[in-house]
Amino acid sequence: MKVTDRLRHDRPVFSVEFFPPKDEAGEAELWRAIRRLEPLDPAFVSVTYGAGGSSRDRTIRTTGRIATETTLVPMAHLTAVSHSVAELRHVIGAYAAAGIGNILAVRGDPPGGPLGDWVAHPEGLTYADELVRLVRRLGDFCVGVAAFPYGHPRSADTEADTARLLAKIRAGADFAITQLFLEPEGFLRLRDRLAAKGCDVPLLPGIMPVLSVRTLRRGPELSGAPVPPAVLERLERFADDPVAFRAAGLDVTAELCADLLAEGVQGLHFYTLNRSTATAELVSRLGLGAQATIPA
Ligand SMILES: Cc1cc2nc3c(=O)[nH]c(=O)nc-3n(C[C@H](O)[C@H](O)[C@H](O)COP(=O)(O)OP(=O)(O)OC[C@H]3O[C@@H](n4cnc5c(N)ncnc54)[C@H](O)[C@@H]3O)c2cc1C
Fold first, then answer.
1. What is one Pfam family matched by this protein (predicted)?
2. What is the pLDDT of residue 292?
3. 0.85 exceeded by the pTM?
């Protein structure tokens, strides 16, 4: 089942993102989250691709297990970091063999983070559009790419950044998922810029529930998205009260999601950090997922 087949025009959907667990405790936590979210019928679930060898094997294993042991539609992320084209072909082949038909093709970050200088593998790739082309050539995959409402940190401006996103879509991407953000405007402007260029592939907003002071500070720092002053004012008074902060942060996140749904987005992609509670609460509050079809 393809991600794009799971997106609907009559009712918005939700999807979730996990990362490959590091140890047995992490594995147990991840599978608790998967089993709790499964009955809510996410449109798809994705597993990120890490920087090192063993975490990469865990992505293949975890996504393959989701494909064979659950009813969920899996999507595996893939990056070009430190890989030759031959190695990338091998990973893509392993995804196909594990029954995974959806791949999020992202370049990945160099060791210095999003602002570091890219070090190309001598027999590798440099930009995500090349990875999209490779995945497309190797099989009948549905391919997603990354999008940045406020521009990728290394892009000169949002126009140049949008041109790069369009290049990835022209290379064969079927949809895009955005970096996290805290107010709808940047996302909506990006969607308008794509529409103005005649591009209508689904653009799914990436949502990171604001549950702690750390998420509020680190999320925007890593993504480049601004923290709206009104959100800061609303949340910072709870900085010393984690329970109240979480409740207010969840309200802020639910309001952002509701605004995006009112603007007609086809789905919300939740960054879960391998937990289920906040995502399940938001899905319930917003009337998304399987529960919306259960008669009262
Ligand atoms: C939804 C989502 C999921 C992600 N999942 C992962 C993951 O699983 N693992 C991981 O390591 N990282 C992940 N990332 C992070 C991502 O790898 C980084 O943000 C990375 O820095 C950019 O990836 P990209 O695919 O957008 O790269 P690109 O599209 O290649 O862009 C990278 C930079 O190069 C510029 N550029 C692109 N093409 C050209 C060109 N032809 N000439 C000149 N400049 C160009 C772009 O403007 C941009 O500044 C994810 C990001 C998002 C939004």
1. MTHFR
2. 57
3. yes
